[in-house]
Amino acid sequence: MKGQRYFILALVFALIVAILALVNDEPVQFNYVFGTQDWPLILVILGSAVFGGVVAVSLSLVKIIRLQSQIRQLQKNGASVPPSVEANKDNTTAAKKKEKELSSSENKNVGIKSRLNK
């Protein structure tokens, strides 16, 4: 579901960029390191969008690679579950036991109340 949302947002963004590019088709002077050149504005807009996408994907890949190396390192070191997680499991088990005790005592109370009302 989350992937579909990003895909739809990407399509909407691409549609907006395409509309802006089609509306702005007059030539503009593009300055780069080695000189200048007149290009249609549509190429400048689309080129900028593609360049931004490449930069975003590159930065995401760097983060993914870093996280994968951390995962491998933790697996190699035999990292275990932190004690706080174990404590939470124990608390959850204790809470479930208390809940069962309370529900059984409530059932007893209902039986006693029904006997008293007779």
Automatic annotation (TrEMBL):
Pfam families linked to this entry: LapA_dom
Transferase keyword on record: no
Keyword Transmembrane helix included in the entry's annotation: yes
Region (Disordered): 77-118
Keyword terms, alphabetized: Cell membrane, Membrane, Transmembrane, Transmembrane helix
InterPro entries xrefs: LapA_dom
Record-annotated membrane-spanning stretches: 41-62
Domain of life according to the entry: Bacteria
The Lipopolysaccharide assembly protein A domain, residue ranges: 24-77
Gene Ontology terms: cellular component: plasma membrane
Entry protein name: Lipopolysaccharide assembly protein A domain-containing protein
Organism: Priestia endophytica
